[in-house]
Amino acid sequence: MNLKFLETFVWVARLRNFSVAADKLCTTQAAVSNRIATLERELGVRLFERDLRTVSLTSHGQRALPQAEAIVRMVGELERLIADTGQMRGTVMIGAIDSIVYAWLPRLIERVKVAYPNVMIDLNVDTSLNLARQIQDGQIDLGLIMGPVVAPHVRNIELCVFDCLWIGSPRLALKPGRLAIADFADYPIFAYSKGSQPHQSVLRAIELAGLDAGAVRVFNSNSLATITRLIRDGVGVAVLPQVVVQEFLDNGELHVLDVDAKLPPLHFHAVFADNPGNALPALIADMAVGIAAAQPPA
């Protein structure tokens, strides 16, 4: 039995679409159809019900899928154990959020270059929400995001935890000492993208402070470069991990504000689809875990 045909069966079963599976496997829809037809002839059963719009597993296909996944996964694990990493080839699509870019992504890219010199990286920087969708849609291979992502066939590995701090410029006309949110309500609060965990935490902190939501302006941005520039210029305050602004804390352009409204920490994960035919996302995720663990607490 051809292993590639089993892998094709797994992806068609997961994606429920011959054309999308063909794109994932970098082949043609005709090739996918031929592989499935050959596999069905070898097994003597129909694996899929097909119509013009949908593909669904037959009862035989449902019984075959767990075994097919296990076989392809075990072969992939064997290849990882004995493979010469210097000979591994391909392109890995990595999606990362700004916080990881600022914290340690350059070190991960350097480590990948050394370990897998023939592997190319396509990098996409976006929000966690967008990257989570792209992982599930098969558009990226590995996401370094605020997770986890709860979805079928998706693996999550915790990378690091960053405290979320109130950050502002010494230019702000704030009273010395401990602050309440009301003490800087005249300034906008810059949060991450709307709907993100930090954004929701800020809204909750405002509510717990007994303030009218309309009385405090919360501005959203998916660009940390934009947020840090604005708060360095004294436009407002922000909620950010310390690692993101460490250089500006060190040179005195920014400082941590002592605010009585504590925010929950941010949990970051390496997230990737359980792809038995592609070991690289899991291998790079393991590298990311080691690099994140080597970082000082933030």
How are the SSEs placed, and which strands pair?
Layout: H1 3-15, H2 18-24, H3 29-43, E1 48-50, E2 55-57, H4 59-82, E3 90-96, H5 98-103, H6 105-115, E4 119-125, H7 128-136, E5 142-146, E6 154-162, E7 164-168, E8 189-191, H8 197-208, E9 218-220, H9 224-232, E10 237-241, H10 246-250, E11 255-256, E12 266-273, H11 280-294
Parallel strand pairs: 3-4, 3-5, 8-9, 8-10
Antiparallel strand pairs: 1-2, 5-12, 6-12, 7-10, 7-11
What report would you give on this structure?
The strands form three sheets. The chain has a five-stranded mixed beta sheet, sandwiched between helices. A five-stranded mixed beta sheet has the order 9-8-10-7-11, sandwiched between helices. A two-stranded antiparallel ribbon has the order 1-2. By secondary structure, the protein is of the alpha/beta class. Helix content is 42%, strand content 20%. Helix 8 (197-208) links the parallel strand 8 (189-191) and strand 9 (218-220). It is built from eleven helices and twelve strands. Helix 2 crosses helix 3 and helix 6 (105-115) crosses helix 11 (280-294). It has helices at 3-15, 18-24, 29-43, 59-82, 98-103, 105-115, 128-136, 197-208, 224-232, 246-250, 280-294, and strands spanning 48-50, 55-57, 90-96, 119-125, 142-146, 154-162, 164-168, 189-191, 218-220, 237-241, 255-256, 266-273.
